[in-house]
Specification:
Keywords: Cell membrane, Membrane, Transmembrane, Transmembrane helix, Transport. It holds the Pfam family FecCD. By secondary structure, the protein is mainly alpha-helical. About 70% of the residues lie in helices and about 5% in strands. The chain is built from 16 helices and two strands. Strands 1-2 form a two-stranded antiparallel ribbon. Strand 1 and strand 2 form a beta hairpin. Helix 2 packs antiparallel against helix 4, helix 4 runs parallel beside helix 9 and helix 5 runs antiparallel to helix 6. The longest helix has about 35 residues.
Length: about 375
């Protein structure tokens, strides 16, 4: 082949294992095939969960009648459009926001146990909401107070963790310390409040979608749409979170600034969700790890985490509404039970895996000998 033919030939691209490159002109995007398959499966599961939440309940409504109600007028207008649909839409939006928030925070902290529940965001929102409920403030101020409390708690965590450099262990430890401090303040307010106000605050702290409507769903949906450009940036920025700090700095990444931006985005999403549905725990913890393990990626994928969180919260709200007779179990109770089981499973499997990877005495001797030869060279 002549030099001219070589110059005219198209450059060969290196194959990427498990990925497909989609090109359109000068633009290209890399798609992880297994992650795309997991997203498709969770999307089907979400459609099934939403259908069950709309059709099944105290009043059974067929799928055909549900579609007819959504597209026209039937005898089930109030049941579908007033009672079930707003609550289900809110569960989808809140679950997606919590799943994305958990994925961002776990990627920044490089810790599968990090989540808004662990690092104090939920505790800050709970303290502010408890103060609003027990101090006799208007109900319209409850959501803004919870949002402000979550953001203030996150600012305190970042302030405590960012002294010097925002390392992952320091970020998690600062969050745990702030969460413990804020939860103690919540308990003091509950003990000092009237019985009725304390009970109302306790229900909010558990987390429930009962009594929520289109106002909360519209607010959270609009919030997610406004955050979409930031989430597109976060998807690309997360590609460098697996690198160590010297390597990331060497390729031009401002590590501390990027970590703070990703953490702030996750905290804002979690605070917005908690402000609308209460302190629903463990969705942000479990959803990213379930998505990551199914997709087999090095970090939680954002879209799969959002779909997983939406499925978990819709199912938790539907089961709590229909499986306990006349009593409606708050969704936060079921997600907390799921999170406790998942934490035990995660700790057991992680410990077993670490024990299997621990080298024996002969392996350690061979490693020392090899390190000595490398040092001599």
């Amino acid at each position: 082949m002549t030099r001219t033919e070589l110059q005219r030939s198209e450059p060969r691209t290196l194959p990427l294992p498990g990925r497909t490159v989609l090109r359109s002109g000068d633009l290209s995007i890399t798609v992880h095939r297994r992650s795309a398959l997991v997203c498709a499966l969770f999307l089907i599961a979400l459609l099934g969960a939403v259908t069950a939440a709309l059709c099944l309940g105290d009043t059974y409504i067929t799928f055909a009648d549900t579609i007819a109600t959504l597209t026209g007028t039937t005898g089930y207008d109030r049941t579908i459009e007033v009672l079930r649909l707003p609550r289900t839409v809110l569960a989808v939006a809140a679950g997606a926001a919590l799943g994305i928030a958990g994925a961002l925070i776990q990627s920044v902290a490089r810790n599968p146990l990090a989540s808004p529940d662990i690092i104090g965001v939920t505790a800050g929102a709970g303290l502010a909401a408890t103060f609003a409920l027990t101090a006799g403030l208007a109900y319209a101020l409850l959501a803004p107070a919870a949002l402000t409390g979550g953001l203030a708690a996150a600012a305190l965590v970042l302030l405590a963790a960012a002294r010097g450099s925002l390392s992952a262990p320091r970020f998690v430890l600062a969050g745990v310390a702030v969460a413990v401090l804020l939860k103690s303040g919540t308990q003091i307010l509950l003990l000092a409040a009237d019985a009725i106000d304390a009970q109302r605050a306790q229900i909010w702290l558990i987390g429930t979608l009962a009594g929520r409507g289109w106002t909360e769903a519209a607010f959270l949906g609009a919030f997610l749409l406004l955050a979409l450009p930031a989430l597109v940036w976060a998807q690309r920025a997360l590609d460098t979170t697996d690198l160590d700090d010297p390597t990331a700095t060497g390729i031009g990444v401002r590590v501390t600034r990027q970590r703070i931006a990703l953490a702030v985005l996750g905290v804002v999403l979690a605070s917005a969700a908690v402000a609308q549905v209460g302190a629903v725990e463990f969705v942000a913890l479990a959803a990213p790890q379930i998505a990551r393990r199914l997709a087999r990626t090095s970090r939680p994928p954002l879209l799969a985490s959002a779909l997983t969180g939406a499925v978990l919260l819709v199912l938790a709200d539907w089961i709590g509404r229909t499986a306990f007779g006349d009593y409606q179990m708050p969704a936060g109770v079921l997600t907390a039970a799921l999170g406790g089981v998942y934490l035990i499973y995660l700790l057991l499997t992680k410990g077993t895996r670490n024990e299997k990877q621990t080298p024996g005495p002969w392996s350690r001797l061979r490693l020392r000998a090899r390190a000595g030869r490398v040092r001599d060279l």
